[in-house]
Amino acid sequence: MLCSASSTDNENVACPQSGPEEHSQFTGSSMLQSRRQVNEKAMSGIDRYRSTSAQESPRKKYGTWYSSLEQQVQPIEKEGVAVLIPGVGNLERAAQVETNLQWLKKQGVPFECWMYVWKPEKKLPLDASRFAPCQLIRHPGFWMDHILALPLNMTKKPAVIHMMDSSEPQPDVNLSRMLSTMVVNGLGALSPTFNDTSAYTAGTYPSMFRQPDRKTGRFVDFIELHFVAFSRKYFACLQDHIDPENPLGWGFDLLLPSFCGGSKHVSEINVGRMGLMDQMTMVKKKYGSYSYDKASKGMRDFVGKHPGVPHPEFVDTGELKAPEDIKPSAPLLLDKLPTDVEANATTVPLLLKENSTLAVDWLSPLGDWLPIWGGSAPLDGKPDV
């Protein structure tokens, strides 16, 4: 759960078009320390599914519009990322984005970038050249509104980076290695971890903190949406499940694994697992640009619409393989990731075909071969999400 149109908290909330004077202001760490308590209160009275099959649970069906748009782009490029900065609303956060972009430019990964600014130019003048090559787009709204503003028919990049303006990737984050780790583990979503216990992370779920004894990282059933690398298909699935009545986004990350993949239970659409990198870290720099009351109500209403959808257990579900643990007979190409991966699969074999994918000598519960990301695999058998 992040922050707002201009922040990056676990609170997944965007700041309204109006100025910060209209937002609740908080001092100290008490706001974040109470975050999980706020969530628990918001969840009271809601059925926290634990035993029944997710396939048996009725829930409102949205659509597959964003997934359809994602498939319109062919061919997918072999490398690079589309970077989404979902909301900036003040000079301090804009400076943080500029810092993050300097880090990104040193990664050696080609990227396109969209930076959404929820304040009008009159209230927040910005020199667009500071954020090049990002497109600086004035876009009123909240966090979820900005995510929906980037349908993937706008880019041919094989992955999406969701980069909030309140978190900062540290020097130990290697984007190329993150992307390779996604390929060899069949991940739809991958994030660095937190390595500090400052006031800014006091409300963070414990599973998001670094476990230094891990060689690479962990499969998990939950990720807070701060700095996250997504596959195209996972990001489009995420977009398809956004509820416009919950623009601040609280509660969305709780159900996302069951919607799109990563849950310990059966995911409605499985386009990859979730992972955390324990040898790569990020720091949370900002918080508090929205109303907790409104975010909590939005969360309660959103989760209440999906009473049978399983919630995460905040547990590890296995060790991530390091890219060097796999000996491919072809380069690791990001546009060739497995799709429709079974949630509990521990390995993801890939088809070697015309030097386009990775060949491995391990098998999946689904059989010897799986289809590949970036292709034109049909949506047959997938629910109308």
Task: Walk me through this protein's architecture.
With 385 residues, this protein is α/β, with parallel strands linked by helices. It has a domain at 55-319: Spore Coat Polysaccharide Biosynthesis Protein SpsA, Chain A (Alpha-Beta Complex). Helix content is 22%, strand content 16%. It is built from 9 helices and 10 strands. Strands 1, 2, 3, 4, 5, 6, 7, 8, 9 and 10 form a 10-stranded mixed sheet that branches. Strand 1, helix 4 (91-105) and strand 2 (111-117) form a beta-alpha-beta unit. Helix 2 (35-43) packs parallel to helix 9 and helix 3 (65-71) runs antiparallel to helix 7. The chain starts with 29 loop residues before the first helix and ends in a 66-residue tail after the last strand. 52% of the residues are buried.
Uncertain spans:
1-61, 338-385
C-alpha-based Rg, rounded: 19 Å
Q: Main sheet?
A: 10 strands, mixed
Count of helical stretches: 9
What distance separates the N and C termini?
21 Å
Helix content: 10-25%
| Fourth-level CATH superfamily of the domain at 55-319 | Spore Coat Polysaccharide Biosynthesis Protein SpsA, Chain A
Provide the β-strand percentage band. 15-25%
